[in-house]
Write a structure and sequence with these properties.
- This protein is mostly helical.
- It is built from three helices and no strands.
- The longest helix is centred in the C-terminal third of the chain and has 12 residues.
- It starts with a helix and ends with a helix.
């Protein structure tokens, strides 16, 4: 509901993730991918991504 199938496809193509046991349809996985496009490093001790990083990532997907 938060992302269209096209956006999910684009995120899968643009952001390479190491293989994991998490299901590929989790919203948190795609929000992290979106944040990584905006510059978020996704390290274990990092705080959650902010609005600016999410906006940058969304802008990259939509362009």
């Amino acid at each position: 509901m938060a992302l269209t199938p096209t956006e999910i496809y684009l995120l899968d193509q643009l952001v390479n993730d190491p293989p994991s046991d998490a299901p590929s349809d989790q919203l948190s996985l795609y929000l992290t991918k979106l944040a990584r496009l905006g510059g978020y490093l996704a390290r274990s001790k990092d705080p959650p991504p902010g609005n600016t990083v999410m906006w940058r990532g969304l802008t990259r997907v939509l362009n």
